[in-house]
Amino acid sequence: MTLSPLVSLIGRRVGASLVTLLFVSLAVFGIAQLMEGDVAEAILGQSATPEALAGLRAAMHLDQPAWERYLEWATGVLTGDPGRSLITGLPVWEMIAARLGNSLTLAGLTALVSVPLALLLGIVAAVKRGTAFDRTISIATIGIVSVPEFLIATLAVMLFAVTLRWLPALSSTRDVHSTWDLVRVFAMPVFSLACFVMAQMVRMTRAAVIDALDTSYAEAARLKGCSPARVVLRHALPNAIGPIANAIALSLSTLLGGVIVVEIIFNYPGVARLMVDAVATRDLPLVQTVAVIFCIAYLLLVTTADVVAILANPRLRHR
Amino acid sequence: MIGRRDAIRLIGGGGLSIGLGACGFEPARPEPAGGRLRVAVAVSSTADTMDPARQTVVTDFCRCAMVYDGLTKLDERFLPQPALAEAIETADARDWSIRLRKGVRFHDGSPLTVADVVYSLRRHLDPAVGSKAKVFADQFASVRADGPDRVRIVLKTPNADLPTILGIQQFQIVRDGTRDFNKPVGTGPMRMLEYMPGVRSLAARYDDYWRGPVRLGECELFAIPDDSARINALLSGDVDLIHAINPRITRHLTGAGFELLESKSSGYTDLIARMDRAPGNNPDFIEGLKLLLDRETMRTAIFRGYATIANDQPIAPTNPYYDPSVPQRPFDPDRARFLFKRAGLAGARVPLVTSTAADKSDDMAVLIQDAARRAGLGLDIRRVPSDGYWTNSWMKVPLGFGNTNPRPTADIIFTQFFASNALWNESAWKNARFDRLLVAARGETDEARRKSLYGEMQHLVHDQAGIGIPLFISSIDAYSPRLKGLRPMPQGGLMGFDFAAHVWLEGK
After folding, report:
1. Among A9, A88, B45, B312, which residue has the fewest nearby CB atoms (within 10 Å)?
2. What is the pLDDT of residue B36?
3. For A43, which of B8, B16, B130 is closest by C-beta distance?
4. How close is the nearest chain A Cα to the Cα of B98, in Å?
C-alpha cells in the first residue's frame, strides 16, 4: 500500500492544476480586455478609420460579447481545437506546434547541460565547504546571476561568431544536419541560458547538501567509518533531494516563456517571441493558448518536483 | 536506488531524443544556381502578411515585391512605368482604360486575366479585407472588365495620378477569388517556397517571369529585431544584407569592409502643434516653434549626415513637383523669443510628447528643448511608450511628433495629411485656398500648370501649417561586398523593397 496515497496525491494535484488553468485562462482573457486597442486597430494601424474598424471588427466577430468569445475559445480548447489566429488566419495549434518543438529542444538541451553540472558543482562545493573552491563557486554564481543574459549572449556572439568565426551568430534548427551542427548551433544559446538557470540550482544544491551533512545521522555515518563519498551519496543526498528538485523545477520553468532575450539575439523562433507577437497584435486565441501551455509546463514541473520529493522522503511517502 | 550517473544518463537520453525528434537531420540544401541571398530586416511578427492589401512593414513590402506585380511600377523619380498593364489611357482623367500585358502567367501556371485584376482592385473596398489602401480605392466609382484584355476604371472625381496610385504596393495583383494568402501565388520574379509569419520566408527564382528570369537563385528573409544582433549577423557572415542601420554604427561597418546603401527618402519625423487649441492656435507660436529647429545639428548629431535638410513642407527635392522657390527657414531662437513674447508665452511651460514610435523624436525633442530655453520657452519632454502611441497620443496632444513614410505622389501626401478634411491632418490646419488648389491639381493634365499649383501649396504649408519638418530621413542598409546590383531608390531602403529582382551574388 505504498502507492495509493501517492496516487490520490497526484489525483488531487491534477484536480488543483485544472482549476489553476481555468483561473489563468480567465485572468489572461480579463487582462486582455483591459488592454487598450484590439486586433482590428493592430491590423489597420495608422489607417484605422471608424468605418474600416467597424467593418473589420464585424468580419472577425469582435462585436460579440466578450464572454461569448471566451466560451467559444474554451470549448474549442477542450475539444482539442483552439481555433484560428485572428491575424494570420492559420490554426493556432499549427503556429504553436513548430515553435513549441523549438522551445522544448532548447530547454531540453539546456537542462541536459545545466542540471548535471549544477548538481555536481553544488555537491562538491558543499563537501569542500569553506575551501577556495567553494568560495570561487559562490562568487561565480552570484556574479553570473547578476549579469543579464543579453550581455552574456551578446559578448559570446562577438567573441565566437564575429571575432573567431567558430560558431554561427544565429541559431536555426534548419542548419542542423549532423550532431556536430547541433553542437555548433546550440552552443551559444544553451551556454547563455545555462549561465542564467544554473546559478540558483548550484546555490540551492549546496545549501541543501550542507544541511544534510550537518545532521546527526550524517555524523553517525562518518563516525562508523563510511567514506566521504558514501556519506554524501548514500546518507546526505537522498535527504536533500526534495529542496533540490524544487530548485531545479523553478529554474527550468523559466526556460519556456522567460527566454525572450535569447530568442531575439539568436533569432531563434520559440514560443516566447510568439507570445510577445500575439500580445502586441492583441491576437487573443493565440495569447490564451500560449498562456495555458506555459501554465501547464509550470504545473508539470512543480508537480514532478513534489512527487520526487515525496518519493525520496520515506516520512512523506507513508503519511 | 538509481545511481546518480544512471539518472543523468536517463535524463540525457530523453533530452537528446526530444531534441533530435524536433529538428531531425535533414541533408543540407545545396546552394542553388544564382546563389542564396540571406536578408535580415528589423521587424517581423505573426502580423506579417502576404495579402498585398494589408502589407504594412518592411518584411511585407519585400516579400510582396518578390511574389507579386502591380499594374504599374514606380521608377526612381516616382513616375509610373508599365508593368502588368501594357498601356493606360484616359481622355478626362476620370474614365480610364487599362490594357493588360499578354502571356503573363502566375506561379501555378494559370494565365493572368482581367478577372484577376478586377478582383484585386475591387477587394480593397470590402472593409473585411482590412486594406491599407482603402482610402485610394474609395475613389473608384466602378472597376469592370471591358473585353478579354481590358479593364475599365471610372473614378468618382478626376485624378490624373491614377497610374501612380496603381503602382502603390497594396494594389498588386492576386488571383481571382484568393482569400488565403499563406501560400501566396503571384506573377512576380520569385516563387514563395516557404512562408512562416514571424519566422522567415524562402523564395526561389520564377523561371517564367514575364520580364525574363532574375539573376538571384533564392532569397531567405527574416528579421532580427535587436540592432547589435543584426549587425553581428552581418559581421559574422550569417547574412548578406541588413536593413535599418543606426547611423552611429556606419563607420564601424565600412571599416570592417562592408558596403552601405543610403536611400534618400521623403519620409520624415515631424513636430506637430495642434492649431485647434492653445498654444498652437496662435500663429506667432507656430512660427516661433519652427524657428527652433536646428536642422544642421540634427542632421549631423542625430543622423550623422544621413538625412536631407527639409523646409517644413512634405515635398522632397527628389519629387518632380518640388518647388525650390520656398525660402529655407533658418534656425533663429532670437526671433522665436520675440514671437513667443508677442504671443504672450514668454516663460510659459508646454509639455512636448515624444515616443520611439516616431523615429528619433526623443533625440530631436532634446535639441528643440535646448533651443526653446534660449528663446524663453520651457518645454517639458514627456516620453510615452510606442505601444498604442498612434491611437492614444498622436494628433491628440497639443505638442508632439508624427512619422511619415515616403508617399509616391504630391497629391497623396497633401490629401492624406494636409487637406482640411484629411483624416491625418496632424496639426488641424484648415485652409480653403489649399483645398481648392488640391482638387484643381488632381484633375489637371497640363504638367506646367500642375507644377505651379503644387508649388503654391508647398508655400502655404511651409508658411502656415502647424508642423515642422526638420529633415527627410535617409534609410541605411549594409551588405556584404559579394552582393552586387543594389542602388538607392526614393521609395525606401532595400531598393524600395524590390532588391530581389535586381541583385545578384558574386564569388564565395
Report:
1. A9
2. 92
3. B130
4. 28
Instruction: Please give the mean pLDDT across all residues of chain B.
Output: 90
**Cα Rg of chain B (Å, integer):** 25
CATH number of A3-34+100-317: 1.10.3720.10
> Which chain B residues contact residue A47 at CB under 8 A?
132, 134-135
Between CA B487 and CA B495 the distance in angstroms is 6
Contact across the interface for A108 and B226, Cβ inside 8 Å = no
- Helix/strand/coil (H/E/C) assignment for every residue in chain A: CCCHHHHHHHHHHHHHHHHHHHHHHHHHHHHHHHCCCCHHHHHHHHHCCHHHHHHHHHHCCCCCCHHHHHHHHHHHHHCCCCCECCCCCCEHHHHHHHHHHHHHHHHHHHHHHHHHHHHHHHHHHHHCCCCHHHHHHHHHHHHHHHCCHHHHHHHHHHHHHHHCCCCCCCCCHHHCCCHHHHHHHHHHHHHHHHHHHHHHHHHHHHHHHHHHHCCHHHHHHHHCCCCHHHHHHHHHHHHHHHHHHHHHHHHHHHHHHCCHHHHHHCCCCCHHHHHHHHHHCCCHHHHHHHHHHHHHHHHHHHHHHHHHHHHHCHHHHCC
Closest residue of chain A to B38, computed from CA coordinates = A170
Q: Do B18 and A87 touch (CB under 8 A)?
A: no
**Nearest CB to B391: which of A41, A161, A170?**
A41
Chain-chain contact of A274 with B128 (C-beta, under 8 angstroms): no
Q: Supply the pLDDT for residue A318.
A: 61
pLDDT tens digits, one per residue of B284-321: 999 999 999 999 999 999 999 999 999 999 999 988 89
Q: Which of A43, A161, A238 sits opposite B236 (nearest CB)?
A: A161
Does the distance separating the beta carbons of B22 and A102 come in below 8 Å? yes
Q: What is the predicted pLDDT for the residue at A316?
A: 66
Nearest residue on chain B to A57, alpha-carbon basis? B128
CB atoms within 10 A of CB A140: 15
Does residue B275 carry a pLDDT above 80? Answer: yes
Residue pairs between chains A and B whose CB atoms are closer than 8 Å: 164
Specify the pLDDT at position A52. 74
Q: Under an 8 A CB cutoff, do A111 and B390 touch?
A: no
CB contact under 8 A, B49 and A238: no
Q: What is the mean pLDDT of residues B453-477?
A: 96
- Which residues of chain A carry a pLDDT beneath 70? 1-5, 45-48, 316-319
Name the β-bridge partners of B203.
Answer: B192, B219
If you average pLDDT over residues B472-499, what whole number do you get? 93
Instruction: Say how far apart CA B331 and CA B347 lie, in whole Å.
Output: 20
Map out the domains of chain A as residue ranges: 3-34+100-317
B423-428 average pLDDT score: 90
Asked if A161 and B238 come within 8 Å (Cβ–Cβ), the reply is yes
- Interval B145-188: pLDDT, tens: 999 999 999 999 999 999 999 999 999 999 999 999 999 999 99
Nearest chain B Cα distance for residue A12, angstroms: 27
CB-nearest partner of A116 from B8, B14, B223:
B8
The more confidently predicted of residues A46 and B141 is B141
Our CA-based measurement puts residue B373 at a distance from the nearest CA of chain A, in whole angstroms, of: 33
